[in-house]
Amino acid sequence: MTAVQVAILAAGKGTRMKSAQPKVLHRLAGKSLLGHVVDAAEALAPERIAVVYGHGGEAVPTAFAGSRVSFVLQEPQLGTGHAVQQALPALAEDGITLILYGDVPLIAVDTLRKVCAAADGALCVLTVDLDDPKGYGRIVRDGAGEVKAIVEEKDATEGIKLIREINTGIIALPSAWLRGWLSQLRNDNAQREYYLTDIIGMAAAEGKPIRTVQPHNQWEVMGINSRDQLAQLERVHQMATAQILMRDGVTLADPARIDVRGALRCEPDVTIDVGCVFEGFVSIGAGSEIGPYCVIRDTEIGAGVKIAAYSHIAGAKVGPAARIGPYARLRPGADLAEDVHVGNFVEIKQATLGRGSKANHLAYIGDAEIGRNVNVGAGTITCNYDGANKYLTVIEDDAFIGSDTQLVAPVRVGRGATLGAGTTLTKDAPPGELTISRAKQVTIAGWKRPVKAAKKTS
Ligand code: UD1
Ligand code: CA
Asked: Which ligand 1 atom lies nearest to the CA of residue 52?
């Protein structure tokens, strides 16, 4: 395919968002609107991407620091044609230029490929037929069906307003033609703006081929101007994601009650209950079940795992057949092997648990290496932090940690060791033995509870 240059228009004000933040930085499915557009553009492997920004100042380029996108300031904003003019110095002069809008986040890469392919030696406009075309630029065709012009609503006659085919704003054409026509734009129209859309009339006048492409789904070209539209498009996107999951063999208790903010990869026969949120990159192995209201981010879950309700998991690895929750919290660096059980109100951070180990109730395990078949009793805490540094707790295979134990790191529990309930372990516990640090239980005969002193009356 011919080399592609991409200009993304994002200088508009977004007044209706009523926000201190630039519109294109508002998020859909956890990613900024502009981020969606940039990612779609990147998928075309273009030579260059230039974003035209204006309102919101440096917040927009700052949000994309480190990306290969170039940012061009448009100040003042004199219309879409003027905006594209500003982008030209940041783009190469050859190939095809594709123009996108920063507030149209769900444009599909397939559709963009079709538009670019059609723009080889032609001007291509992405259009849709709307039941209510009010507000949009209308596609004006002649008797033979050839596109002759785009006329903006504010400049349209009553007859043109009846046209239902509209300009989505997404246009691609040979870069050389674009450069020539942009320099001829005038602002003698109702809005005193330099309209990009005037280049369509210029192309028609020069007898250049003009083609139109339509998207597979109308929502791909929906722009966002208000928080209401943002919420609606979020739901459309989530439903589309849910449909793909179900098509790929995932059972969803309710496709309207799942939120994927990133990428969720599931093997067949995964079941996901209502209210779950997936962030970043999450993968789930075959046959695993996710209970209601779990939040899972950047985590790898093996096959046959059961995660019960209200579990919060981030940056973790969960081995096959594990049992997690309800109310479990796995934090970054939690690495659980096969058949590990983590129960309610257990928090695990930067710790490995070997095959078959269990921490079923009320525990904090941080900076630890736990072997196989270890039983961590209720209320166990690794005291990993002395206020300045963090230290490691090692628990070897087959150890049994009694309830309400504190392991003051650095400390090691030997293989098969038992710690008595209530132990505060400050020195290593030898393998195979019972270690206990509790004071010996005594009964003080005849001890009396204190009595309340009588109140003085004066
Ligand atoms: C534009 C099109 C119209 C199309 C509609 C689709 C023109 C003249 N009209 O109309 O045919 O049906 O989009 O939504 O092109 N922008 C800038 N700088 C500017 C002006 C706009 O960067 O000076 C950006 C905006 O941030 C936005 C996009 O361009 O992302 C479109 O601007 P908008 O004002 O929404 O265009 P419309 O008048 O709605
Ligand atoms: Ca608009």
From this structure: 22
